[in-house]
Structures are given as structure tokens and as C-alpha cells.
């Protein structure tokens, strides 16, 4: 495997004293796990953060070997990780992606939707600006994995009147997402979704008051 491409880092697990096993989402190769030497070091620690956009240089001698990767930061989500709601949204989106997708299978529509969703989370002034994109992303993953209904003819995001309406749709999606997309990792990954749902509910109650 030899690949150099833009990617979204969706997970990073410590490995040994200083390395990490990173999982990155690319447009043409899909989800790829790779060994990143020094990933826990001072230089790379701010890069190896779920949600970050990176340029990934991935190499492996055979398809059965865990690839080695060098990654360069192209866009950081770090500034938003100190904000509880965006941080919860980024954490859930990345955890869902890393868990739901099989490795090394291209899902170009998922890659594009994930990139757009993360951009919206970081750019919108409030969750009202990205909750529809989150609903559309969960629905897209279900459909791409073979569990969703037919796509609407326009392919556009669903029309959501307000945050409360978005929460209702997210609640309906919770069961199929938990049942079909995250399998054995359900408890840990769904905890991230519940945290996001609670923070969205608090925001909705404040706006209603």
C-alpha cells in the first residue's frame, strides 16, 4: 500500500511509549489504520487529534501489514475542543465513523459528508447551523452500510425547522445507529452520543426559556 492523500483523523490509540495507531478517513481508500511513530511526542501530539484534517503519507510492504504513516496538519479542530458542545459533536462524529466503517473500502460520499459536517460544527455560530448536517450524516452512514431507507430525490439535507425538531430526529436515529453501526463497541461509543444529546438538550431548553 502506497498512498498520499488528504485525510481526516478519526481515532488515535496509544501504542508503546511514544507511538499511536491512528485511523484516518480518506476519499479513495476509505478508513485506514496506520502506525504513527512519535505520535505522542511534543511535535505530533497536537496533530494526532480526532477531527483534524491532515495530509497522510501511508506506506505498507503488503496488504496484511499494518501501514506506517507520516501525517502533516492541514486544519486543526483544536480551538473548538475547549467548547463543550462542539467538542462533544466532534468526538461523537469521529467515534461513529471509526467504529461503523470497514477498513480499506472507499466511501467517497461519507468522506465528503464528514468533512462538511466537521467544517459546519466549527464554523456555525450555534448547533442550529449543523444539527441538520449531523442528522444527514448518521442517515448516510446507515444507508451506506445497507440499513437505511431510500435517499430523497434531491440528495439534500433534511429540512429541520429548529433545534427541537432536530433532537426528535436524532432520538429516532439512536436505535438503528446503536444496533447496526457500532456493534460490540456500542456502550463506549454511544456514551459519546448521549453526552452530545444532553448538551444539545440543555441548549434547546435555554433557547426555549
From TrEMBL:
Identify this protein by name: DNA repair protein RecO C-terminal domain-containing protein
**Top-rank lineage group of the source organism:** Bacteria
Pfam hit, one: RecO_C
* Span of domain DNA replication/recombination mediator RecO N-terminal: 1-68
Amino acid at each position: 500500500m502506497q498512498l498520499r492523500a488528504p485525510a481526516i483523523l478519526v481515532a488515535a490509540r496509544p501504542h508503546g511509549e511514544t507511538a499511536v495507531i491512528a485511523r484516518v478517513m480518506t476519499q479513495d481508500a476509505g478508513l485506514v489504520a496506520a502506525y504513527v511513530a512519535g505520535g505522542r511526542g511534543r511535535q505530533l501530539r497536537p496533530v494526532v487529534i480526532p477531527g483534524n484534517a491532515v495530509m497522510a503519507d501511508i506506506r505498507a510492504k503488503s496488504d496484511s501489514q499494518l501501514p506506517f504513516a507520516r501525517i502533516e496538519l492541514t486544519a486543526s479542530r483544536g480551538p473548538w475542543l475547549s467548547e463543550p458542545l462542539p467538542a462533544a459533536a466532534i468526538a461523537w462524529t469521529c467515534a461513529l465513523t471509526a467504529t461503523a466503517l470497514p477498513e480499506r473500502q472507499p466511501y467517497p460520499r461519507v468522506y465528503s459528508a464528514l468533512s462538511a459536517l466537521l467544517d459546519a460544527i466549527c464554523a456555525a455560530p450555534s448547533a442550529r447551523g449543523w444539527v441538520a448536517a449531523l442528522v444527514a450524516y448518521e442517515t448516510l452512514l446507515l444507508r451506506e452500510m445497507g440499513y437505511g431507507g431510500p435517499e430523497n430525490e434531491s440528495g439534500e439535507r433534511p429540512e429541520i425547522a429548529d433545534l427541537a425538531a432536530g433532537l426528535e430526529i436524532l432520538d429516532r436515529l439512536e436505535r438503528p445507529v446503536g444496533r447496526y453501526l457500532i456493534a460490540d463497541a456500542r456502550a463506549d461509543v454511544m456514551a459519546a452520543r448521549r453526552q452530545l444529546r444532553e448538551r444539545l438538550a440543555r441548549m434547546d431548553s435555554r433557547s426555549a426559556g
